[in-house]
Amino acid sequence: MKVLYVTSECAPFVKTGGLADVLGALPQAVAAKRVSVRVVMPLYGSISEQWRAEMKFIKYVYISLAWRNLYCGLFELKKDGVVYYFLDNEYYFKRQDIYGHFDDGERFAFFSKAVTDILPQLDWKPDVVHCHDWQTALVPVYIKRMYAGEDLYDSIRTVFTVHNIEYQGRYDAHLAGDIFALPPALMEDGTVAYGGGLSLLKGGIECADHVTTVSPTYAEELQYPFYAHGMEQVILANKDKITGILNGIDTTLYDPSTDLNLSHCYGADAMADRVYNKLDLQQILGLNQDESIPIIAMVSRLVRHKGLDLVASSLDAIMDMPVQFVVLGRGDWHFEQLFLSAQSNYSGRLSANIMVNFGLAMKVFGGADIFLMPSQAEPCGLAQMMAMRYGVVPVVRETGGLRDTVKPYIAETGEGSGFTFANYNAGDMLYVLRQAVEAYTDRKAWAALQKRDMSLSFDWTAPAGQYLALYRKLTGKR
What we know:
Blueprint: E1 2-6, H1 18-31, E2 36-42, H2 49-52, E3 56-65, E4 68-79, E5 82-88, H3 90-93, H4 104-118, E6 128-132, H5 138-146, H6 151-154, E7 157-162, E8 170-171, H7 175-178, H8 184-188, E9 193-194, E10 197-199, H9 200-207, E11 210-213, H10 216-221, H11 225-228, H12 232-237, E12 242-244, H13 274-284, E13 295-299, H14 308-313, H15 315-319, E14 324-328, H16 333-345, E15 350-353, H17 358-367, E16 370-373, H18 383-389, E17 393-397, H19 400-405, E18 419-421, H20 426-440, H21 443-455, H22 461-475
Parallel strand pairs: 1-2, 1-6, 2-5, 6-7, 7-11, 11-12, 13-14, 13-16, 14-15, 16-17, 17-18
Antiparallel strand pairs: 3-4, 4-5, 8-10, 9-10
Helix pairs in contact: 1-22, 4-5, 5-9, 13-17
């Protein structure tokens, strides 16, 4: 079995979010099952010299994209049993940021066309090409609709994963030919036509042999308008080929027993030293040092769909509880300012850290007690899994991957892993948050809950097995 993963970002080379974490771990987990695995991504200018020094130049080719004939360099790097390809074109990819440019559609159309066109140039032919999010959605379109009838391409099976359907790669219809090199037939038959324009995401869903989402619950939710952002009819039309497979996390990277970001490492069976991380966190953030008071933490983008409007409307009520509150992240200006102002109002009890800082995030996971994640929608969510791995008990809304990973805590039986609420409103969130704060006062029961959470398995072994089973079903190969 040979699998090629196509992605716009991949850790540790370049990362803006959870997509990079997934592509940094899933290929290695599949490779560990004796599968030949390769990953292809753009050679961004932001990729460090450390990694560039390990790359080997393979060849260059010219890629035809509508009326353009464009240079593409192919570089290779081998790491942890996986071969990584990097596609070079400085005009498109030597920029400060990897997303957010006026020509992102053209940039990733070039990348998708280049991925498709280099397949015959490789000394390795994939059985499965697995693409991720709208930036790579044209690959299944090109393979299945534009190169149909060619032996190499007809033998390939394509999988397309929707990590977040909110981002759809939507553009004006008149760009289909000049920018995306799509023939008129693909607009006329509805393959990419959507809402008076075109959607690259829709094209990927329509043309892929199979579609996955990043949690079973998210796959169900996408059939409803509240979650699908207008794509519910597309999902319903393709539901027979859609599967939800829950993401995992890198349990080697996120391991409190070896994490050097912590002042004291600890494990599920040796938690006594965890309190020192809490005291250390309180000192670093200027909070009152008190091991008996629960620390509520949010490590998140500070945006509405992460539930920040619920938190904003009930922040004073939260701070009326006997708690401390730590916020870490960047996002919308008004949420950032809200927490900065609250930090002044609740000196010594609330710490607003308006930044993205991996080392500090790990310290928060290592020292906090309660992890608040009241998302409006959450395709999978990785932070709640990291929190439980570090013994931080989650309080979450029952949506997407949060519902699949956090089971309601029942004090009478000790079952469950956290505190959950279903309706998206501040009152329900406050109710279960108060439950968590009350449960914290029973230190013996709380320690048992922490230990149970830390013992849960969130690694990539099971998801990799599910993906491999899917690849085998699609190809008939072992």
